[in-house]
Amino acid sequence: MRVLIFIGFIFSSLSWAQDLPNPLTLKDVVKIANKYNFDQKQQQLNIDKSKLKLNDWESQYDTRATLDLELANRSEYSSGTNNSHGFVYLKKTLYDQNIEIGKDTQLESIGNANLSFQQLQQNKIINIMRSFFDIILADMSYETALEKLAMSAIREGRVKDDYDIQQASEVELLEKQTNTQISQIQRIKTESKQIQTRANLAQLLNINYEQRPDDVVKPDFKKLLEKKLAEFEHYQKQLTNNPKLKQLEQSLKSIKRQISQEKDNLGIVLSSNARLGEQAYQRDKNGKWRLGINLSMPFGTDSKQDNKISQLQIQAKQQQLQIEQHQQSLIGMALDYYLKLKSLQQIHKALIIELDYRDLYLEKARANYELEIKSDIGNAMVNYTDSEKKLAENEFDYVITLMQLHYLIGEDYEV
Predict the structure, then answer these.
(1) Which residues contact 122 (CB under 8 A, 6 or more apart)?
(2) Distance (Å, whole) CA 86 – CA 334
(3) With contact defined as beta carbons under 8 Å apart, do 136 and 389 qualify?
(4) 146-196 confidence digits (pLDDT tens)
(5) How far apart are CA 264 and CA 100, in angstroms?
(6) Which of 24, 351, 344 is nearest to 201 (CA)?
(7) Phi, psi at residue 77, to the nearest 5°?
(8) Cα distance between residue 358 and residue 363, in whole Å
(9) Nearest CA to 396 among 5, 126, 144?
(10) Residues 19, 217: Cα–Cα separation, whole Å
(11) Dist. CA 29–CA 129, nearest whole Å
């Protein structure tokens, strides 16, 4: 971990300091990810923008007031007559079919943005968890590499002692020295992996790398893997709740509603108006106020409207095809996840047995070593650590796959 500080300078200008719990748990990471998720914040701004556009449509129903002041003379036979006036005009649209269509379309846009927001959040959590698990696996690989290096160094030392008393050849010594260097290279690679995985997590969390998670807590998923999975039919029935499918179906409903609205759209605009004020000319005849209701509706056919309906009908067909394609792909994806989970559960059982075997073998090797009986304790330690890593990797894969399956059927799932 000696070179970790160097990487911090790369990220210091791209992120900010964030005090992380030390050691860091998976729940801590997910909490921080939700708090500092730039993608979600960007999507939230898009939602806010869409809501403002909806307000623009609704504001067209607001009462509008204008002031009209004029100082003028009017020619009346041979003399000039004062024709000045001062009026306040009030106008309010009571109903406009085009505005209503625009509002419905904007509401659909907001609904789609909200569903996209949910999917962004789920994808972010999956990526964060993967990155967190990568750190744990990198640390376990580093421990294995250290054990292999120690074992190679011990063997080299033994051969060196034999070489010094001419009990071993130079070829044997060079062989052991080469093995030690190979183990050293592997240790360096695993140390680099530790740096890389922590850098990835820091970037995903949008935090200053100087506040990187040095120590992480390995979560225990043993009980989760021992829990029996529901039958595949259980998940298949719930595929109708898939967020993307619901989004596609909602869009199709919106398009069909737009088609219906456009067919019934006669361009009707109903508005009210009022005029309040004074005028110098014919004051008694015109009075101080006027009130009225206006109805406007275009006559004849509208080729632009017909073309819009045709375009919407094509969109509806395209949307229906997307729904059918997505429905088919959902079944395949759900089945893949389910079969993978079943396989990972079986592998978990096998790895538990393997780890028990490695543990017993290590104890035997350690006992023989203490009794100064020939022992391969080095290999036993390496094999045990390697089995631990395989078991952890299998557990992490299971958790990620299980979350993906639940997200697929529209369920929020926490481990």
Answers:
(1) 407, 412
(2) 72
(3) no
(4) 989 988 998 899 899 988 898 889 999 999 999 999 999 999 999 999 999
(5) 12
(6) 24
(7) 60, -120
(8) 9
(9) 126
(10) 17
(11) 8
